[in-house]
Amino acid sequence: MRLIIPAALCGLAACTALPQASPTPAGSPLPPQRIETELNAHNQQIGQLQQQVAELRSQVSELQQRQQQLAQLLDARAASRRSTSHSSAEPAAAPAENLQEQAYQQALQLYRSGLYSQALQQLRFAERSGSGGRTEQNALFLLMQSHEKLRNCESVILTGQRFATRFTANPKAAEALYSVGNCQWGMQQRDIARVTWRKLIQTYPNSPAARRASQRIQNNR
Fold this sequence. Notes:
mainly alpha; Serine Threonine Protein Phosphatase 5, Tetratricopeptide repeat; disordered N terminus; coiled coil; TPR-like_helical_dom_sf; Outer membrane lipoprotein BamD-like domain-containing protein; signal; BamD-like
């Protein structure tokens, strides 16, 4: 007896005999669409970071400009304070100079009137070291002359030497040295007087005081 196998069963058997599809390996390359998506995302992140860097640079530049402005403001305020301090000190110095000039003028009148002791009283400020201005120089020289009129030779020597040392460029320095030498001669310090006069002649060779000193040395050899 012949068996008749249905066609459906034959088709099922044929299907089961076909090979199954193998899975995609783990290390296989990404599809192009996914690569493009990730690349676009990375480019977007890079663009955002570049924008942040640009913003930070702008902020740094603004901070540096602000710092320079603040530094200039501090310098300007410091200069203003120094200027204010200097200008406020000037009015205090001016009255002192005016008082010294007034005292000198009074002493000069007393000296010309022969009141040498009273002139000394007006010239006490010249005994202190000050700014070395014109009034102080004139007052110190007049102080020496007043002592010379009163024959206070020790004071003449001290004052004259001080004047000649401090104010070497003053034309009266030669006269001060001559007066110092003259007092030294009168106090029997003749060798010292010759040294003083030789210094006068060497330092101020063309001055009238140098000619008088040279004559004194020649006459007293």
